[in-house]
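Support request, please re-run this one:
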Amino acid sequence: MTTYAGSTMKLRVAREVSPFGYFLSLGDDEDTEVLLHYSETNGVKVKEGMEVEAFLFHDTDDRLSATLKKPLIRLGELKRLAVADIHPRLGCFLEIGLGRQLLLPISELPELIDLRPLPGDEVFVTLTHDKSGRLLAKLAREEDLAKHVFPAPATWKNEWKEGWVSRTLQMGSFVVLDGGVVGFGAYGMIPAAERPEPLRLGQRVSARVTFVREDGRVNLSMGKLKQVGRIEDADRLLAFLKERPGGAMPYSDETPAELIKNKFGISKSAFKRAVGKLMRDGIVRQEGNWTKLLTEEEAAAFKAKADAVKADAAKAGAAKTDAAKAESAKAGAAPKQPAATERAAKEPASREPVKKAPQKKPFPGPNRGR
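Re-run finished. Output below.
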């Protein structure tokens, strides 16, 4: 009888027992009946003898019961459910639309507490039974999701997409991207280097598609394009420097990547690109482990030097252009040969006349010569 839980079945109303509700017949050999409480009729006027479509579950006393409410998930289905509550020893309780929650056991959750879902997060799960036949959620595995996702189109490259983290590891986080009207969604991965911090299971994220694989899966990044991120990161570092005493910070290209990540939330490569832009713009300079704002005198000297370099480059470019023009003019001024001479040069050399071999006279016959 416990195998019925989680299924939606058409059952006949056998009898009404006040003040509890209606008893529905399962129609098995044992003529088993389950209670449809008055509070579970969902506004339907139930009468004895009628047939109703009911969802079966276990109540708080582990008794098989029925409801006419529509559940968000049924036995064997894969759905994305919202986390309603957290229990530190049991796991997550998920909302299934029946006024009660479904347990996602702690054994299904990441070992690190910081990676576990929070209320409001949404996780992909399937509905199954525990050893006692009670309903239980099971975290959807990659092979479960593969049956529902669709291949991402190549046009998604460099587009920003939103999705839900379906699995999170030290190497990266796997995400099911929203499919919208197209379908269930597409499957992708955010490598650890492309996320600002480890992501929670069930966390809502926005990421940029960096590569669409042949199998339709995608590589993702939570960082912006380098040319865009470089400008934004440079602005952030400049604002930070301006707030520092003396316009200096103890961070440079020699600073360990972990310290930069913890302080600014960006990779060391992004930090170096941003600082490099500020240095090329003549705003900062580096001294050992320090990055400092240039003084007005230093900035003026940098500008003068940069202007001189530009002027020299412009002169060199102009000289190169003039030389090319002179060479072209010289080639165009070469003296032309007279037309007759030119034709003669083009005509093939005359051939000497071929001398014909002298013809031999016929040998005189017996009647000739007389």
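Residues 231 and 290 are 21 Å apart (CA to CA). The mean pLDDT is 85.
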